[in-house]
Amino acid sequence: MSAAAAAPESQSNASAAKDTGPLAGVKVLELGTLIAGPFAARFLGEFGAEVIKIEDPKGGDPLRKWRKLYPEAGGTSLWWAVQARNKKSVTVNLKAGEGQEIVRRLAKEADIVIENFRPGLLEKLGLGYDVLSKDNPGLVMVRLSGYGQTGPYRDRPGFGAIAESMGGLRHITGYPDLPPPRIGISIGDSIAALHGVIGAMMALHHRNMNGGTGQIVDVALYEAVFNMMESVVPEYGVYGMVRERTGASLPGIVPSNTYPCRDGSIVIGGNSDPIFKRLMMAIDRADLANDPQLAHNDGRVPRTAQIDGAIAAWLSTRTIDEALDVLNAADVPVGRIYSVADMFADPQFAARQMIQQFRWQAPGAKEGEGVDVALPAVTPKLSATPGETRWLGPALGEHTDEVLRTLGYDADHIARLREQHIV
C-alpha cells in the first residue's frame, strides 16, 4: 500500500491562498537562512501564520542549492519545497539603507521576527530589537544562534553539528570503541528551531493574555540540545558519573536495544515492568518473567547481558516478520528499522496521510516543467484547526512586489529599488 496520499495541487500564488489555521492573523518576518530559523518559521506558517521571508537578491537562501536539486543541473533543492512552503519570498539587500527601512516597516506590522544571524549583526544593520520594538512594543523576536546572545562564545560561528557536540549528544551516541558519529540529519538545528517556536508561542500568550509586552526569545543551539539530555546532569552532579556511548542500547533502561534476526534487525522496547514480563513469556523464558529480582528495572540493569542474550538467542532463528508477528501479538513494543522506501509502502503512514503529493513548478525549471513531489504532512495533527501546505517553496523574490505594495510602495518606486539592486 502506498503511503503517498494525494493532495491538492500546490498554489504557487500566495495572494490567492487564504491563511487558515490556529495562527491565522499572526504575522512572521523571517530573517534567517539554512535550517534553524527557517524551520521555526516554516512551523508557524504550516499552522496559518503569514510568513514573509527576506532573502538576499543575489541568490537567496543558500539552502536553495543544498542536497538533491530539481532539475539536477542548475535547479532548486527539493528540500526547499518543504522548508519554504507557505512562505512569501521577498528580496531585500540588508546592507542598503533603503533595504533596512523595508525591514523596519515590515517589522512594525509583525508579531514575530525570527533571525539566526551571528549575534550583533542585526544591531550593526540598525535592525536590533531595541530599534524594531520602539515602533512595535509587542514584537516578539526569536533569536537562534550557536551559543546565545551572551557569554564568552557568543561571537563564534556555531552550526548544529557543533551544538550537538557541545550539548552532549555526540558524546553518548554510537559505540564505545568508535569515534562518535553524527545523526544523518541536522538534528541540533531542528531541536533549536522547535525551542524557538515554543518560546514564541509562550511570549505571544504572555503579550496577548497577561497584558505583557513583546520580548526576546534567546535560543542557543547547544542549550537546546543540552535540554534534551535527560538525567545526564544530575547523574554527574550526584555520582560523578559520565554517561558514555553504549551502542544501540539505552543505558540503565532494560531491555531496550536493537537485536539481530535472521534477515536483519529489529528494535524492542521491553523496559516497563509488565511489558518485560510479556516479552519474556513470548520468547519462552518464563523463568525470567517470574524471577522476582527482574520484576523492576533497577533489578534488571545488573543482568542486562543475560536478558539481552536471551532475546538475541530467541531471535536468531527467526525472520523479522516472524518475530514481529509473535511480539505484536504479545503487545510488546517492537518495530523494524525503516528506510524512506519503507515509509512510502507502510499502511500506517498511508492511513494517516503522512506523505502527500504536490505538483511543483520548481524555481529554475522551464515553464510547464513541473514535477510531482512528495512532502511530509504537517505535524502535529490538530482536530479542529489542522495545519496544511498551501503552496510550496517559492521562486526567489516571487512576492516582493506584492508585499511592498502592502507597505505603500508604488510601481515606480519598486522599479527604482530593483534598478538599484535594493530588492
Can you describe this structure?
The protein is an alpha/beta fold. The chain has 2 domains: 4-229 and 354-419, 3-Layer(aba) Sandwich (Rossmann fold), CATH 3.40.50.10540; 256-341, formyl-coa transferase, domain 3, CATH 3.30.1540.10. It contains 18 helices and 14 strands. It has helices spanning 36-46, 78-83, 97-108, 121-124, 129-135, 160-166, 187-209, 221-226, 232-239, 273-282, 286-289, 297-300, 304-315, 320-329, 340-345, 347-351, 400-406, 411-419, and strands at residues 4-6, 27-30, 50-55, 69-70, 76-77, 87-91, 112-115, 140-145, 216-220, 256-261, 264-269, 334-336, 355-360, 371-376. The chain has a 6-stranded parallel sheet, sandwiched between helices. β2 (27-30), α1 and β3 form a beta-alpha-beta unit. The protein is elongated and about 85 Å long.
